[in-house]
Specification:
about 500 residues, mainly alpha, Sodium/glucose cotransporter, 20 helices, globular
């Protein structure tokens, strides 16, 4: 643990103040609740791409993933391959249809809102269940962001974990509270750029320090030859590989990523956004994997410096930056970790806020609430969810990747099949969506608690959750009566509109 130098303090303060100023600028552009929740659906391709990417790639990209590579070696790279495949399919097949469909179904602002209008659910049960799923799993997801921020402040400034929690979360809460969706999206662009810079520069410097490729490989082999193997020399097995690749399934159900698709200026901007977003993602993941992998070689070369990483492998990126860079440059690069944390945490807080204000407050308590009233309810909701996340993150032994994995699986299984089939299958019914969503979420929780924790299963909980939800949707939909004619007509109109734009 280091004592913060003046350059580190200055660069962090400058960065944090800049984010708050962006929040203030966004606040001045936020005129109504639609602006606060979705930015008025006017994001360009660059902002859409970097906002979707930055909100996706949280603190786990600079802490959890390099830490996993450092501990277990090349085999963890299967996660990255799964994520790249899932992200591409999400951009290619979900982004455009979701943008068109949400606009045609009551100008839906949230996923629960979309589900309600898509299936003409007058009971509003679908809205309630989906909103509850979002709140439960996002509380865990937000906690992972708070833990990552706390780890950064703990390592860099030598703060006790309890204090670091508050410092790590405070600025994110502030600009999200003030500026809403526009603040989150504009800060995502700055944060995404900073993350890319850090993840391109750091592996190059570590590579040069370890003496190049051959030297690094030999050093890693001297630690553990299995870390050079994509299968851990057979120990990983087919189930392990499938589990790591299955991270890609999660993309279809992440509300904070899907919200970026809903906010795009038009469906015509999606292809350009996809190209920008995928290029950014591949470069960032490659940098993250390289840092974790080469970190094994570096600390084998310099075992006397390995103390913080031995204590917690998720500190490998932070520790390498502190050791190898000038304090001014280190300050900028370490700000990228904060950027990764803040970009995702702010997106998640906003989705939770939109659920509480749009789906509960306006949906049940105050249907006639004014736009100004809803914006302030949204801000109060951000504060409430923040406090819950801080409480969940209070354990200093929390692991970022573990928390992310659980929440990612929950959303992927509960919402992924529902979103995919709602967009592409006309025969899907409300009851099918409801049962699929519930069984997907329950399967993830049950599999994690029973099969993984008690029975030692290596199968990632998203796999059974996604499969059960998909089967449940199809079976229940086919057993029940067909959707109303108006639902089918809307679906046909959306598909026709998409074909006309090249989808």
């Amino acid at each position: 643990m280091m004592t913060a130098s003046t350059p580190l303090i200055v660069t962090f303060v400058v960065y944090l103040v800049a984010m708050v100023l962006i929040g203030v600028a966004a606040w001045r552009s936020t005129k109504n609740f639609d602006d606060y929740i979705l930015g008025g659906r006017k994001l360009g391709p660059g902002v859409t791409a970097l906002s979707a990417g930055a909100s996706d790639m949280s603190g786990w990209l600079l802490m959890g993933l390099p830490g996993a590579l450092y501990l277990r070696g090349a085999s963890e790279a299967w996660i990255a391959l799964g994520l790249i495949g899932g992200a591409y399919l999400n951009w290619r097949f979900v982004a455009g249809p979701l943008r068109v469909y949400t606009e045609r179904t009551g100008n839906a602002l949230t996923l629960p809102d979309f589900f309600t209008h898509r299936f003409e659910d007058r009971s509003r049960l679908l809205r309630v269940i989906s909103a509850l799923v979002i709140l439960v799993f996002f509380a865990v997801y937000c906690a992972s962001g708070v833990v990552a921020g706390a780890r950064l402040f703990e390592s860099v400034f030598g703060l006790p974990y309890a204090q670091a929690l508050w410092w790590g979360a405070a600025v994110t809460i502030l600009y999200t509270l003030i500026g809403g969706f526009l603040a989150v999206s504009w800060t995502d662009v700055a944060q995404g750029t900073l993350m890319l810079f850090a993840l391109l520069l750091t592996p190059v410097i570590v590579y040069m320090t370890t003496g190049g490729f051959e030297s690094s490989i030999e050093l890693i082999r001297s630690v553990d030859a299995a870390r050079l193997s994509w299968t851990r020399e057979g120990a990983l097995g087919l189930v392990g590989i499938v589990s790591l690749l299955a991270w890609g399934l999660g993309y279809f159900g992440q509300p904070h990523i899907l919200a970026r698709f809903m906010a795009a200026g038009s469906v015509e901007t999606i292809p350009a956004a996809r190209r920008i977003g995928m290029a950014w993602m591949i470069l960032c993941l490659a940098g993250s994997l390289t840092v974790g992998f080469l970190g094994i070689a570096y600390f084998q070369q310099h075992p006397e410096q390995a103390g913080p990483v031995v204590a917690n492998s998720e500190r490998v990126f932070i520790t390498l930056v502190e050791l190898l860079f000038n304090p001014w440059v280190a300050g900028v690069i370490l700000s990228a970790i904060l950027a990764a944390v803040m970009s995702t945490l702010s997106s998640q807080l906003l989705v939770c806020s939109s659920v509480l204000s749009e789906d509960f407050y306006r949906g049940f308590l105050r249907p006639a609430a004014s736009q100004g009233e809803l914006v302030w309810v949204g801000r109060a909701s951000v504060m409430l969810i923040s406090l819950v996340a801080l409480w969940l993150a209070r354990d200093p032994d929390s692991r970022v990747l573990g928390l992310v994995a659980y929440a990612w699986a929950g959303f992927g299984a509960a919402f992924g099949p529902v979103v995919l089939l709602a967009l592409f299958w006309q025969r899907m019914t409300r009851n099918g969506a409801l049962v699929g969503m519930l069984l997907g979420a329950v399967t993830v929780v049950a599999w994690k608690q029973i099969a993984v924790e008690r029975m030692g299963s290596a199968l990632y909980e998203i796999v059974p959750g996604f499969a059960v939800a998909t089967l449940a949707i199809i079976i229940v939909s086919l057993l029940g009566p067909a959707p109303s004619r108006s639902v089918q007509v809307t679906h046909e109109q959306v598909r026709l509109s998409l074909r006309e734009t090249g989808y």
